[in-house]
Amino acid sequence: MPDKDRWTTPLGIATALVAVVGTTLAGLAYCDSHRTTDIALEDKEKNEKLESGDPILVSEGTSWFGPAWYASDQVHSVAGMRFPMNGYEIIHWLQANTIHLGVTGTAITVTAQHPTTALIHGAELSDLKCAALFHGTAVRLPAIGDGGETAPPVTIGFNLDAPRPIAQNVTRSGTLSGPFTQQVALDKGDSREFVLNFTTTRSTCTFRAAFTVTSQGGKHAIPIPATWRNGKPSSYLFKVTAPAKSYTRAYITEGGSDWHFKSINPHHLIPDNATLTYTKDR
Q: Can you tell which superkingdom this protein's organism belongs to (predicted)?
């Protein structure tokens, strides 16, 4: 084979390989460019969706533990009923058969979503309906500790007995102390916990509540969940009944290896502002 032919063939192969590699690299660069563009478009769409959506995201908080007493308009026979898990089982029974007595509420963690600062002005009520007190059954839970709190939540209270209930400040002792006038500012990604208390000493009430928020020049009403199940809102309707002067039956919860209901004489219960006092405890 002539020297010329001996060198031409490998050179052709090398040239072809270079062309293939070049084409492949160009293709990869093209794909990377399009992938980067797609990611940028996805991020833009996500941001636009957040900007056009609610200014805050609400999730379940940890700083509200419920009232001491619960009540029902039904007469329940539950003496000796036991709850081996000492927790969720009894709470589920109470949720299904009773409502909060004197005060209801919730703890909500609020997270800002808009790129501009969200201002939370407080909360407002809607669909407030009140009727007669419950006289069926009263149930007391054992005291539950608060577990401590590193960053105190913002606490807002409502007097449901007022002609027009408005958001109010709450003192450390739990009393209402005038209109809530704070503006809680949250930048995107910032979070703050809110505790809301709704009190009545006169009636049985149902209602809904919402945060009032301004962001990006607009005003928003963000519904507040009343109850949660598995980390998701299960109801937006709050329910509460005031202490009654008499009940057909009454129980207190006793501990030990498991929680159980102990029947007590309902005549030993007296209304004490927004709760009941069991006189045998004295």
A: Bacteria
**3-state SS record for 14-29:** HHHHHHHHHHHHHHHH
Q: Residues in the chain, how many?
A: 282
Question: Is the pLDDT score of 7 beyond 50?
Answer: no
128-182 pLDDT, tens digit each: 999 999 999 999 987 665 544 456 899 999 999 999 999 999 998 889 999 999 9
C-alpha 98/C-alpha 74 separation (Å) is 9
CA distance 186 to 113: 9
| Single-letter amino acid, residue 17 | L
- Cα distance from N-terminal residue to C-terminal residue, the chain: 117
Q: How far from 222 is each of 146, 182, 219, CA to CA, in Å?
A: 27, 17, 10
| Strand partners of residue 124 | 210
For position 118, what pLDDT does the model report? Answer: 95
SS (H, E, C) 204-271: EEEEEEEEEEEECCEEEEEECCCEEECCEEEECCEEEECCCCCCCEEEEEECCCCEEEEEECHHHEEE
- How many whole angstroms separate alpha carbon 279 and alpha carbon 268? 5
pTM for the model stands at 0.79
For residue 20, which amino acid is it? V
69: tokens are 């007493």
pLDDT(2) > 60: no
Q: Is the pLDDT of residue 121 over 90?
A: yes
Q: Could you read off the pLDDT of 13-34 as tens digits, one per residue?
A: 555 555 555 565 566 566 566 6
Please, what's the b/e burial string for 185-199 (b: 16 or more CB within 10 A of its CB; e: otherwise)?
ebebeeebbbbbbbb
